[in-house]
Amino acid sequence: MKSYVIAALFACTASSAFAQCPAAPDHSLQLSELITSAQIATDERAAQAISNRMWELWADAPDARAQAFLDEGMSRREGYDFAGAISVFEDLIAYCPNYAEGYNQKAFAHFLRQEYDTALIELDKAIALSPNHIAAISGKALTLIGLQRDEEAQVALRKALALNPWLKERQFLKGEMPATKTDL
Which segments carry the TPR repeats (predicted)? Predict the structure, then answer.
């Protein structure tokens, strides 16, 4: 009987340890619509509301466990516990390796520690999973600026601004703004 109880406890522990993260919610249509709205927004206030909605979608984790990791990591980062935040984001990534926001948030914590090379690696992973993740693309531009790789930074910045011309990062753009749909 004792061995049966131990086996049952092991099975419960193992099943939670090997629980798989479900697929992230598919917000691609909503994000596409928001990108279009940002491109045709007539002022910064309207564009900010659109950006806030994008953040809500990016921060919508695949399940409650992933959401708890994301929220905890962001809370630690906001409290300047960057090492703790990175550790929690690593747990999130281990659990949900296909969730772009885990990489983006981990990159941001590394960026704040001025660990630009590491941040860039994480941003590239986020962008590979979510090619129109404007925050990751603009974060990549800022990270490349931190690495003094200005030409590459300008390419990333132009890509981000083509998706949302109202980004605050536009102040770092050299030359003219990319054309938006309203310019066509």
Answer: 100-133
Q: Regarding the domain delimited by 45-173, which CATH topology (the fold level of the hierarchy) does it fall under? A: 1.25.40
This prediction has a pTM of 0.85
Tell me which residue of 150, 153, 130 sits closest to 140, measured CA to CA: 153
User: 181: how many CB neighbours lie within 10 A of its CB?
Assistant: 11
d(CA 60, CA 70): 9
Q: What is the pLDDT of residues 105-158, one digit of tens each?
A: 999 999 999 999 999 999 999 999 999 999 999 999 999 999 999 999 999 999
Domain spans of the chain, in order of start: 45-173
Other C-beta atoms lying within 10 Å of the C-beta of residue 139: 24
Q: DSSP secondary structure string, 92-105?
A: HHHH-TT-HHHHHH
The tokens for 156 are: 């990333």
Task: Note the pLDDT of residue 11.
Answer: 40
- Determine the pLDDT at residue 19: 79
